[in-house]
Specification:
The chain is built from twelve helices and 16 strands.
Length: 369
């Protein structure tokens, strides 16, 4: 299997990761962030520039002396495939080192078995990389608990037996080093490094849709918990004592909408617009916003994040009710610190697959070794 292009000592790795996540950045700024002297920054970055891992950009601002050349990561120096496995099929992306999506591909299939996933991934990689060089690594995310050794457990959405050594199957099929994790954890990694959570040390992601999940970053590290099972917040009580998953589960919500309307609502119907016409639907949407607000507020009270991202298939239901969510989070946050910034983001399959690619990027850069 391919090996890393760069072998970095721990300090050089810190420098490269800082530039990846915060660049373009001047050498002076890099030194301040990492508490390194100017001479140390120059000594550490020079070989990485020569090797093509870092790039020097255009001068920053005007200067009467030697211009400051910002450092940035050489994003095109490596590529990664991210694969999101769902009960409806496979969604894949090709990204560069900064997580920018370069191509997408998908494969439909109801509850694909591990063997069928392995059989389909080769064609997806070929489709993504047509006309390009081979990718450097593969990342995979799915709705399951995943041990640190990569064994997939508790894949109830997929109906898989446990445990499954999916990494071994995919590495044998593709020849690519493969990293696997829970889909919410993977999505959290991507948003922490490249998205809404960039530049935060304390960050939380709340996802609503087929299930309810939590991704958590504390002290700049993703929290995985025992057996990778952190974030199972669906059973937490909200509103009048109902479980969060009872209010926020997509299928249960749509069944309640049908009941409020008195007929089956066509797939693809704009539920938020329907709420302006049917009071019962508006009440259901208020329930969703309040449940998300209370759940996010509970997360805030316990973990004190700087920022909370609410995403997932259910995020569109919060359109026009974002302030209602933020108000509840604010009321439940500790009085002595500012309430976290709450961002509601509608994402698609490509963004979830990018989360899987972020796992591969992380491993490629030596994080977690």
């Amino acid at each position: 299997m391919p090996t890393r292009r760069w072998s970095l000592d721990p300090t050089s790795l810190r420098v490269a990761l800082t530039v990846l996540r915060h660049g373009p950045i001047s050498r002076a700024g890099l030194g301040r962030m990492l508490d390194l002297s100017s001479a140390s920054v120059t000594r550490l970055t020079k070989p990485m520039v020569s090797a093509g891992l870092l790039l020097e950009g255009a001068p920053l601002g005007r200067s009467t002396g030697r211009p400051a050349l910002p450092l940035d990561i050489a994003a095109e120096s490596a590529t990664f495939v991210g694969l999101k496995v769902s009960h409806e099929g496979l969604h894949a992306v090709l990204t560069d080192l900064r997580g920018t999506i370069l191509a997408t591909a998908s494969c439909d299939g109801d509850r694909l078995s591990p063997a069928r996933v392995a059989g389909a991934v080769h064609a997806l990689v070929d489709e993504l990389t047509e006309g390009r060089r081979a990718p450097d690594a593969l990342g995979v995310s799915l709705g399951a608990t995943v041990d640190r050794d990569g064994l997939v457990r508790g894949a109830t959405f997929l109906g898989w037996p446990a445990p499954v050594d999916l990494a071994a199957l995919l590495e044998a099929e593709t020849g690519l080093r493969t990293t696997i994790d829970n889909d919410v954890n993977a999505f959290t990694v991507a948003e922490h490094w490249f998205g809404v959570g960039r530049d935060t040390q304390e960050f939380a992601v709340l996802t609503i849709g087929a299930g309810v999940g939590l991704g958590l970053v504390c002290r700049d590290e993703v929290v995985r918990g025992r057996a990778g099972a952190v974030g199972m917040v669906g059973p937490l009580k909200v509103l009048d004592g109902r479980r969060a998953e009872e209010v926020l589960n997509r299928d249960r919500f749509l069944a309640a909408v049908d009941e409020a309307v008195g007929a089956s609502v066509e797939p693809g119907t704009d539920i938020v617009a329907l709420g302006t016409e049917v009071p019962g639907v508006a009440a259901l949407l208020d329930d969703v916003a309040d449940a998300v607000g209370e759940l996010a507020g509970t997360v805030s009270a316990i973990t004190a994040p700087e920022r909370i991202l609410v995403a997932g298939e259910g995020a569109p239901l919060l359109a026009g009710r974002e302030d209602r969510v933020r108000a509840l989070v604010g009321r439940m946050s500790p009085d002595h610190i500012p309430a976290p910034t709450v961002v509601v983001e509608v994402v698609g399959d490509a963004e979830w697959a990018r989360g899987a690619a972020a796992l591969a990027i992380r491993a490629h850069m030596g994080v977690g070794d």
